[in-house]
Amino acid sequence: MTKSIPPEDRELFRGAVADAEPIAQDRAEPYRRRPPPRPRPRPDIDDEDEFYPLSEAEVTTHDYLEFARPGVQRRLMQDLQRGDLGVGLEVDLHGLTAELARETLREFLRECTARRVRCARIIHGKGAGSGQPVLKRKVNYWLRLRPEVLAFCSATRRDGGTGAVYVLLRNPAKAKRERRG
Question: Which stretches of sequence are listed as region Disordered (predicted)?
Fold first, then answer.
């Protein structure tokens, strides 16, 4: 069924397009193969704040620390919490300034990756001297930013309790296989 257009609407349309110029070609543009998109450069792992946009205010620090990325198996996390995974390396951040502790932690994690360490221990202390556990709060935040860290939790009493954390690191052999595939 064809609807007729009222004459006043037709005149209104003709007035609106009166200064339009007709297109010289009435065919569609031919198909052209588009170039593939250029990949964005990967952020440098040292520049964690850009890699994982997470502010320190978003991370709450409790007495017992616990964090796991999606996909970490529950049984593996339970082994980490019990201290059943062998600690390959450890670092003590007691008494360091926040900036020095951050750089030391960064170097420590690089060393763990180079040595293919699966589980490490970081001693941050309980903050007894200052009243507030500054390094504990910072370590809780910094570890979440690192892509090689899969999970972490407060250590058992025999390994430092809430003044230390066990860190589960990404398996370097698996990470290389995933990048290739």
Answer: 1-50
Q: How far apart are CA 136 and CA 127, in angstroms?
A: 8
Q: Which of 170, 164, 160, 65 is nearest to 119 (CA)?
A: 170
Cα–Cα distance measured from residue 27 to residue 160, given in angstroms and rounded to the nearest whole number: 76
The total of structural domains in the chain comes to: 1
The predicted-structure confidence for 94-127, as pLDDT tens digits, reads as follows: 888 889 999 999 999 999 998 999 999 999 988 7
Q: Do the domain assignments include residue 88?
A: yes
Report how far residue 24's alpha carbon sits from residue 48's, in angstroms, rounded to the nearest whole number: 54
Per the confidence metrics, is the pTM higher than 0.85?
Answer: no
Instruction: Give 111-149 as a DSSP string.
Output: HHHHTT-SEEEEE----TTTSS-HHHHHHHHHHHH-TTE
CATH code of 146's domain = 3.30.1370.110
Q: Is 32 domain-assigned?
A: no
Structural element, H or E, at residue 90: strand 89-92
Beta bridge partners of 152: 67, 167
132-168 per-position pLDDT tens digit: 788 888 898 899 888 999 999 999 999 888 889 999 9
Are 122 and 108 in contact by the 8 Å Cβ rule? The answer is yes
Q: 10 lies in a domain? A: no
Query: How much is the pLDDT for 130?
Result: 60
